[in-house]
Specification:
Structural class: alpha+beta
Radius of gyration: 31 Å
Helix content: 10-25%
């Protein structure tokens, strides 16, 4: 399965002394890598980038780099048909490159490794001129975090002299992301011992059953505490000989980023499974592309302190989305491997730590990623999303003259919080007794929701609260809240996220974020998310902050930092509606109008952009009309391209007739069927909605914003009708459902009718 046609070499031409080896007409990626790039909206950009960095020969820099290494990795398909990785080690200089198309390696896989059998077989030694053994390589220098990859095929094997030669088919450099900086040294005495082992039966490969990982503590700990491993995959595509072969890649993360578990097959068999996250990378998708065609994979875990290697192989599946993926900080998707074989070699690796590993050696990207302890805690919090949890106020920061940021963390240090999406809000509740001194014995709460104003971290929440004139809770937070105090909050909720324009985000269409005042709070995390993605793929985004003047602009430094990630594609503008003397840093002054918006989005036309906006109701209404109108001063933006979030109650900006019923003026019986509770609604009572009625009767009803925007409190109406005194809610609803936080019983044709709600 890993033998290549001679066509893999292609044509090599030299003109004016310059190597011009051409990438195949189809480009540097095989069709399965292209499928994933297309799926994720980076196909065009990666084709252009790949043609610049992928070569069919070793550059002078790469030739020098491989020569100075005391170790590097190879990947090939073993005699059982599984891709396997092997860490080769010898004195620096054991790898040489006599010309840009050749690599000579003076080392062989460790005795007992799966690939040792491959190199010991007569079939491998019998090199045929037409079909070659495919071998991939990864040169990695851990202490500098440099790495380069290649793919090629075997042209010569000297088992006596422990060396082999490779013809290079494809090479490219890799970024240093997620690599921990270890300092290693070659151990000559261990290497000599391995050479003796190759000549005895003790050097034969020892393959274990998958259950070995559960029974052997050293193997189990090596997997569940590792911060790095290597993965080999293969794509034996006979239709495209340039890409026939293997790949070997590095994976890194926080200790605990690989999960070892058991799962039950469809037939009831207990299987051993490994799961790891796939973080943002270079978008080549060499590993995942291979797995799309051939699910077999081989993993190599290395314990450098004890010179132990652990090989695990089996069938892998890519999990593109789901709760586990969302719960794991930094994960774009997951890979699950059902284990089919294991090989563990203790003390045979001829590499030792020149310096003990410590926390300072972790890759700088790791704080933006999680581990399975964090992810599983987040999953548990998500399951308990209707419950309130206690958080302490870790930090208070004044963002503007009237905006205060509140950082909330779990009371137990290092405890994860439920993950959120950029744009979502945090429901909180405050006991009435704190707000009203004369109600110090009241068991009631006052509920509010505040947008989360930061990109998800997994370990804290940040809400940014504007002091509203006459605002009960916002005034209390500004006047009374102190660091060390506690607040109660539920899991984040809300649908105002970039998912609303998923296709636009995926395909790189322009995103315009329009924030008025504290409306910046859900939009700043969106900008930060787009900035994070812009580091790795083209992304056009424009952030517009509308404020009264300079002193009322929130998050100025954070907006600037986000845009600095990709200054040619991420831009920000300040619009001051009432500038004062000295406000020279605004881009536009006066009210936001069609002329200003057209200048901001140029060179794009407004109708080609997707708009996300948040702010006071008057700002949203005026801006929505400005964007959607086809009249003289309108911009004719399709309504499907406009997304918004109110602060406070507000009707849908799209308009439309109010199709709710007429609120009842008479008492109505209400039956909550799932709870077997029947009660009486009276228009003159203390309840403003069916949600408040349900809570008063001890029914735990789900809710989020309590403003009719998020749809969390939707419930099926089995019999009867409801009305919305404030007009149709903004959340989209099934015709047979009611949004309990806004609904009241409607006037019935028959006074004896019972309103039945599935709750």
């Amino acid at each position: 399965p890993n033998r290549l046609p001679a066509a893999v070499l292609g044509e090599r031409s030299r003109g004016s002394g310059i190597m011009t080896d051409a990438i195949p007409p189809g480009g540097p990626f095989h069709k399965y890598e292209k499928e994933i790039q297309t799926r994720l909206g980076v196909r065009e950009a990666m084709e252009a980038q790949g043609r610049k960095i992928v070569r069919r020969y070793l550059t002078e820099q790469h030739r020098v780099f491989f020569n100075q290494l005391p170790y590097f990795l190879i990947g090939a398909v073993d005699l059982k048909g599984y891709p396997q990785a092997s860490l080769l080690a010898a004195k620096s200089g054991f790898t040489t490159s006599p010309d840009p198309y050749t690599l000579v390696v003076n080392a062989l896989p460790l005795p007992g490794e799966p690939l040792a059998d491959l190199f010991a077989s007569d079939e491998t030694a019998n090199i045929d001129a037409n079909r070659k053994l495919s071998i991939a390589g990864l040169g990695i220098e851990l202490h500098t975090r440099r790495r380069n990859r290649f793919a090629g095929h075997l042209t010569k094997l000297d088992r006596v002299g422990c060396s082999f030669s490779l013809a290079i088919a494809q090479t490219f450099g890799n970024c240093p992301q997620y690599i921990q900086t270890r300092e290693l040294e070659f151990l000559q005495h261990v290497d000599e011992s391995n050479k003796r082992l190759r000549k005895t039966t003790e050097g034969a490969s020892k393959r274990e059953d998958p259950s070995f990982l559960l029974k052997n503590k050293e193997a189990r700990d090596l997997i569940t505490t590792c911060d790095s491993f290597f993965v080999a995959t293969a794509c034996p595509d006979e239709e495209d000989p340039y890409f026939c072969g293997t790949d070997v890649s590095h994976r890194g993360g926080n200790p605990g980023f690989v999960k070892l578990d058991t799962v039950e097959s469809a037939s009831g068999e207990q299987l051993v499974e490994l799961t790891w996250p796939d973080f943002l990378g270079n978008f080549h998708f060499n590993t995942l592309g291979n797995l799309q065609y051939n699910p077999k994979a081989g993993l190599l875990f290395v314990d450098f302190a004890n010179r132990t290697t652990l090989h695990v192989w089996g069938q892998a599946t890519v999990v593109w989305e789901g709760e586990e993926t969302e719960a794991f900080i930094g994960a774009q998707r997951l890979v699950k491997l059902v284990v089919e074989g294991v090989c563990m070699l203790e003390g045979r690796l001829p590499l030792g730590e020149a310096r003990p590993f410590d926390q300072s050696m972790f890759a700088p990207e790791l704080p933006l990623t999680g581990d399975w302890k964090q992810a599983e805690a987040a999953l548990q919090l998500r399951k308990a999303k209707e419950e309130y949890h206690t958080f302490y106020v870790k930090r208070l920061v004044k963002e503007a003259s009237d905006i205060l940021s509140v950082y909330l963390a779990p009371q137990t240090p290092s405890t994860p919080v439920a993950m959120h999406k950029a744009g979502q809000f945090l429901p909180i509740r405050i006991p009435e007794c704190k707000l009203f001194p004369d109600k110090e014995t009241s068991p009631a709460y006052v509920y509010r929701t505040y947008s989360l104003s930061h990109i998800p971290s997994g370990y804290f929440y940040r809400i940014s609260v504007k002091r509203e004139e006459g605002g009960l809770v916002s005034s209390w937070i500004h006047a009374n809240l102190r660091e060390g105090d506690v607040l109660e909050a539920k899991a984040p909720a809300g649908s105002f996220t970039l998912d609303l324009a998923a296709k636009a985000v995926k395909e790189g269409e322009p995103i315009v974020l329009l924030a008025a005042g504290v409306g910046a709070t859900p939009l700043l995390p969106m900008l930060q998310q787009l900035a994070d993605e812009a580091r790795r793929q083209p992304r056009e985004a424009i952030y517009v902050q509308v404020s009264r003047n300079k002193v009322s602009v929130p998050f100025r430094k954070e907006v600037a930092a986000a845009c600095a990630a990709s200054p040619y594609r991420l831009r920000s503008f300040n619009v001051y509606t009432r500038p004062v003397d000295g406000d020279r840093d605004c881009d536009f002054s006066g009210r936001l109008n069609a002329e200003i918006l057209a200048q901001i989005v140029a060179p794009h036309s407004p109708e080609s952009c997707h708009f996300f906006m948040c702010g006071p109701p008057t700002f949203l209404k005026d801006t929505y009309d400005l964007l959607s109108s086809a009249e003289e001063f309108g911009l004719q933006v399709p309504k499907s391209h406009i997304h918004y979030e109110f602060f406070g109650a507000g009707e849908r900006l799209e308009g439309g007739e109010d199709d709710s019923g007429i609120p009842t003026t008479e008492p109505v019986k209400v039956h909550f069927t799932e709870s077997s509770v029947e009660t009486l609604w009276t228009p003159q009572g203390n309840f403003k909605s069916l949600l408040e009625l349900a809570e008063a009767k001890g029914i735990s009803a789900p809710f989020g914003c309590r403003l009719g925007a998020c749809g969390t409190c939707s419930a099926k109406v089995i019999c009867g009708k409801v009305a919305y005194p404030s007009g149709n809610p903004r959340a989209s609803l099934d015709p047979q459902s009611a949004l309990l936080c806004q609904a009241v019983p409607a006037k019935a044709d028959n006074p004896e009718d019972v309103l039945q709600i599935e709750l």
